[in-house]
Amino acid sequence: MKIHLRKRVGRLSLENQKKGKKQMASLYLAYNLRPGAKIQYEWLNLQIFVSPKSNIEKDHNKQTMSLAENIRAKRIIDQQTTSHGFTSSVKGKISFLDYFKKLADRKREDSNGNYGNWQSVYEHLKTYSKGKDYSLDQIDDNFLEGFKQYLQGNVVRRGEGKLEANSALSYYNKVKAALKEAFMNKMIKENPSSRVKSLKAGNTHRQFLTLEELQALAVTECENDLLKKAFLFSTLTGLRWSDVKALCWDKIRHAENGGWSLEYIQKKTKGAEILPLSDQAVKILGEKQDANTPIFKELSYHTHMNKQLQDWIVEAGITKKITFHCARHTFATLQLSMDTDIYTVSKLLGHKHLKTTEIYAKVIDKKKIEAASKIDLAINF
């Protein structure tokens, strides 16, 4: 790897020339990480005079260039340190908020619908920090305990705004994930989150559609036909939004004995899965296109799409608040209600642990109790 110190000359407007202002050049580092890789840049917020005239200007250039070379030398040492298995003392000094924001932006590039949650955590971290710019190595037990209390202070009952208990847990877990990655990349000497107890999960209520509601939805027109196909496909397969969005025709296979199946890598868990597909699920996708063509390429996850989805739900006469992820909940709940064993449902959902699937079983038990209570003979014994 090579690190070069470079400069970029700024433009000097005619007006500034008349005012006697000097033309300046900005200094930056260019990182050539490996042959053929895209060059990365780091601006140093340092400037030198393009054509120094006076001794003061020449002295300024000399001192500024010396400072820039020292920064370059530190970056080289930093890279050599981490490559030999030692923790970087330089990387630990970077802003924790800046580091977290970069991780959030990376989620947006992944296009998996998770960016919004990471961005929300970033906003909460800014509020909690109250303008103080903590470095990575300043994040300790006290910071994490304080952030936990901050999140818990914003937890209220469902429907009253702010955060639900499981949202607070999810937000805290993202901070833990950021620190774990920093530790694994040798940016900090230890991971403080390993010493701090996590938040407790609240009781979950996973919204889903009944079979009657799903059937009503299927015959109701939607403003966005591609969204309708994607949502119904998810209810028939249990696929997450990220996996539906990434679906290409070459992943769908057919065998005379085994029927239709989908071979894919889960975006969330990175697990390799083979998912049986019903004829109806395949029919929803429409006419087969080129192998590498994304089936739902034109579908994007945004606020307007959520509104289109909810408008479609209302049009079908359904009063529930439904998100795209509710399609996955619907698949799981309907499978269990139709007596598919929980182990099979867990495999169809791609869950690593059966405990995750048991949440849906609790919903079914509750519905059974409610159903039993509906029978009223209207007589006294």
Please tell me about this protein's structure.
Residues 84-88 and 157-161 have low confidence and may be disordered. The protein has 14 helices and 6 strands. It has helices spanning 14-18, 55-83, 96-110, 115-129, 141-153, 165-184, 211-218, 225-237, 241-245, 279-285, 303-315, 326-337, 342-349, 354-372; strands at residues 2-9, 24-32, 40-49, 252-255, 259-265, 272-277. The longest helix is centred in the first third of the chain and has 29 residues, at 55-83. It has 3 domains: 2-86; 93-195, Tyrosine recombinase, N-terminal domain (DNA polymerase, domain 1), CATH 1.10.150.130; 211-372, Orthogonal Bundle (hpI Integrase, Chain A), CATH 1.10.443.
What tags apply to this protein structure?
381 residues; DNA polymerase, domain 1; hpI Integrase, Chain A; three-stranded antiparallel β-sheet; 14 helices; 48% helix; elongated
